[in-house]
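Researcher: Please predict.
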Amino acid sequence: MLFVALAKSRPGTQREATARRLQWQYPDGMRVVAEYWLQTSDPAVIIVAEGDSVVPIMATIAQWDDVFDITVIPAITAEEGLQFAKLMVQG
């Protein structure tokens, strides 16, 4: 399953977040497709990841909750969306 995580910075944590990220590794079972650190606080980080379950996603949220307010949204690729749209149109 594909997930998009939007991480909003908590006040006064950018330096801490950057230092922590240099040392931190994603948990097993979470395959990162993309990670973007933005020049804004909301969202400050966007992560696109795949996982067979939500467990590694929840572990990541728990490890970063003091630095970011994280929203995780299930997603599909454009190709998957177009295939789904074709099925919907066909009725």
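Model: The first helix runs from residue 14 to 23.
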